[in-house]
Amino acid sequence: MSAPAATVAALAKGLAAGEYSSVELTRAYLERIAAAQPALNAFVTITGESALAAAAAADAARAKGQVGRLAGVPIAHKDIFCTEGVLTTCGSKMLANFVSPYDATVVAGLRDAGTVMLGKLNMDEFAMGSSNETSFFGPVHNPWDTKMVPGGSSGGSAAAVAARIVPAATATDTGGSIRQPAALCGVTGIKPTYGRCSRYGMIAFASSLDQAGLITVSAEDAALLLGPMSGFDPRDSTSVERAVPDYTATLADSLEGLTIGLVKEFFDKGLDASNEQRIRDAIAVFEKLGARVREVSCPNLPLSVPTYYVVAPAECSSNLARFDGVRFGHRCESPKNLLDLYCRSRGEGFGAEVKRRIMTGTYVLSAGYYDAYYLKAQRVRQLISADFARAFDSCDLLFGPTSPTPAFPIGAKFDDPITMYLNDIYTIGANLAGLPGMSIPCGFVDGLPVGLQIVGPHFSESRMLNAAHRYQQETDWHLRVPAAFA
Amino acid sequence: MSLSRADIENIARLARLELTEAEIPVYVDSLSKIFAFVGELDRAPTGDIAPMAHPLPGLAQRLRADEVSEANRRDTYQKNAPQVEAGLYLVPKVIE
């Protein structure tokens, strides 16, 4: 069995046809993971034993005849998702010993669909980063060039799928954390509409922006896995009560008459010229498939990064107040008193970037500054949302680059937070407006992958996946595998 | 905008974060840069635009009935606690 060529769709067919068992498949992936771990550092925890047990159970269920189409397909979860009885670190020293007492709803949904968990994937600490360099467990390396970052914060998910050491992975996106690493690693990423997937058991960063999603080889694979992850959950107060369509049913629909908006502000002076050419080439393919293209403007979009760096840190400072060294998480040695316990446990347990964001958020929420920063940012957020809504009056989907440049070297931007934050200039807008977004591979620049971003109206995941799938039927960028992992 | 060392010490105190001596100048520099950067928002024509309260238009935070819905799992949860005794979380003495 050759793992590299396999998509979730192909593996599901192979399992159904009896070409291999889930145990055989799981063992093959565990071997690939072990072999790649020194070079990529994509995993924090590998759950080999429980994976093989789950695979055996999937095989036994299949022998009895009653299984869903994902039964026995191995996947891995970003280490931000709580997994019962398994270490759940969120990439932080703070949670380096935290064994979750329950499963995230997303994890339970995918397990109930029959998938087999291979382990937990590395990530930027508390999902705060765009390069996977802030992880307490060390950076993840990009499989296309291990000197390069994989993007972040879902860097482990993207690198693992790109290297074909897992068929698919869960991920999360607060400001681009699915789409940007998907672009930098040459894989498919989807961030659904805010509220589509439950946030229960997904360790909170910025609760009005966080959303679970997927990193996969193909749009078809994303369509297969998104259904079981989605739907209403009473345990998440922002979960939306709305039926989940069969995302695979509309994949092959025609793109005749689809109107694609090219957002003028996405093609700004910060966009690398070679990157832009790959995006333009991809758009030409969509035109050949029957789509119409028009330019649209979202004039407030350039303010999305400063807006985000008020809203997200504010919410993070509140969410991370729960880490107090008392109930769970890191506690300092011999605290003098309760205040010392709080301050030293948090000072030692959080890394540099997390502390930077907590302090930024604390300041913008503090007395005298709330109106000037937080309220102002929430007003600008309204303007950005209105820009998108206006664009969707005349377009079905918006297209642009996912990131300004391909992957950059590990260490290159680490010391300059503003430069690092600007990596997410094209992705943050969708989070601020709660919109679904995707990134799909559309070519290479100097051997490094480039991603095309698709943003749709709320709950347009079916249409986005349909467009991405039709493009992937015409191109094979998404099937390219880095030579070292072929 | 420029923050001072005293500003950073005050923010860290509010955030309950102990900083090392080496960390303070790093945050003086980087937070000053961040607030200069987010200062761009001042230019935005927000007028009487209402602040956004929910990312999905027309939706508000759902409330639930005030009813017990979860079983008591104290022992399970306390397995992750740094220090417990007889079902209680232990912290340094608060009242002398």
Structure description:
The complex is a heterodimer of chains A (486) and B (96). Chain A has 486 residues and is an alpha/beta fold. Chain A has one domain (3-260, 394-485): Amidase signature (AS) enzymes, CATH 3.90.1300. Chain A has helices at 8-16, 22-40, 48-64, 105-112, 155-162, 179-185, 219-229, 273-288, 304-319, 338-349, 352-365, 370-394, 417-421, 428-432, 461-474, and strands at residues 43-46, 74-78, 116-121, 168-173, 188-191, 211-216, 259-263, 292-296, 397-401, 437-445, 448-455. In chain A, the strands form two sheets. Chain A has an eight-stranded mixed sheet with strand order 4-6-5-10-11-9-7-8, sandwiched between helices. A three-stranded mixed sheet of chain A has the order 1-3-2. In chain A, helix 4 links the parallel strand 2 (74-78) and strand 3. In chain A, helix 7 (219-229) runs antiparallel to helix 15. The mean pLDDT of chain A is 96. Chain B is mainly α and 96 residues long. Chain B has a domain at 5-42. Chain B has three helices and two strands; from the N terminus they run αααββ. A two-stranded antiparallel sheet of chain B has the order 1-2. In chain B, a hairpin with a 2-residue loop joins strand 1 and strand 2 (88-89). In chain B, helix 1 (5-14) crosses helix 2 (23-38). The radius of gyration of chain B is 22 Å and the shape is flat. Chain B starts with a helix and ends in a 7-residue tail after the last strand. The mean pLDDT of chain B is 93. Classes of the chains: A alpha/beta (486), B mainly alpha (96). Chains A and B meet through helix 9, helix 10, helix 11, helix 12 and helix 13 of A and helix 1 and helix 2 of B.
